[in-house]
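@channel sequence for tomorrow's demo:
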Amino acid sequence: MPSIIYFKTVKNLLHIQFTFLFLFITIGFGQQLEPDLPENQGMSSTRLSNIDRSLTNYIDNGKLPGSVVLVARNGKIVYHKSFGMSDMENKIPMTNDKIFRIASQTKALISVGIMMLQEEGKLLLSDSLSTHIPEFKNSKVAERKGRNRYRIVKAKRPIRIRDLMTHTAGIGYGFGPASHLWKKADLQGWYFAHKDEPILESIRKMAKLPMEAHPGEAYVYGYNTDILGAVIEVVSGQPLDVFLKERILDPLGMVDTHFYLPKQKTSRLSVVYNQEDYELVRAEENGDDGSSEHEVTQGHYVNGPRKSFSGGAGLLSTSSDYAKFLQMLLNGGVYNDHRLLSRKSVELMTADHMNGDHYEGVRFPWDWGTGFGLGFSITNDLGDRGTLGSVGEYGWGGAYHSSYFVNPEEKLVVVYFTQVVPITLDDHQKLKALVYQAIVD
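structure tokens (generated this afternoon):
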């Protein structure tokens, strides 16, 4: 009898161990992106080929120089193709490993960084910004009084970290009622790569300027995430580039994601084009005198001062790198045997923080059926939005016309990179429709 009991006990222990090992492999490690046939993941190769025809049409008609699309489902890459040219004048083809300026797609990484620091007990989303950057203790707001008049008043309440995460802090890109003061301070527009000072110094100057709205009263898209990047530097005690590399980029294997490009990778950087009179024109290089409008040039990502790490719009990346980051979020915070966030933190990031009582009367202003989470937009009403997708889909884009979206219900990750600024085109909407119509399970 004792031997039978012993055998059953050992058998049960082994069962428990194997069960734990299975869960550790399938959940703890997190899905890693590997290529697979679309049909194995509930998608149609034939239907996905509609993307080829659509993007080739844009390029043939001179509307896009080139682009890269990556589609992953169930943690498997089912589509990864490049189109057109990365450099039209020198006839250099676009390839899947090209590096792109991803601008505001940087914001999602910074938002993850803030959540990581909250998980470590180093800050709370409810913290006042002035707790970490004291210069914001006496924030001011420029209230409009007529067409060209305003008055500067004390903010009704302190800015909180959560306000910055949701773009409800009242801080724009320097084009509000007191725009002349922001211009005088050289703080207008989203571009920082040319600045010869650390981002924290720029943010401290920003704290002295009047905001566009009172905290919590409006969705105002602007420098919020650049400020969060400075918060990360203060709280972590590390420069932002070092924090991101050690805490996010290296664990995820994002080897081609940088604020400033290493010299040996310059040949892989895709060229920026401007849309002028509906034609593509190669963007100018930046002049040493700084006279160019930096946002519509090739930028200082190769030969810049390499001092200002813009958490709102500064990173360069590849489609493969960025897909790894998105897959980590889709996996509930884990990827490549590294857990960056808890599942609960990801749930809070991907919840709609608009349209509720906390920010009463505040609505996301740009799309129907859409709210905003902690770093990206969130679909909350599919019928109201009126396009293919699912409730809970989240995503964002960048000023150089790149974009991404993640659909947790369909276990779908989509990355779309191109380099045109400014541009008016329906390719983002069309790509979304073409990806969703390829789901056949």
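heads up for whoever presents: The two ends are 52 Å apart (CA to CA).
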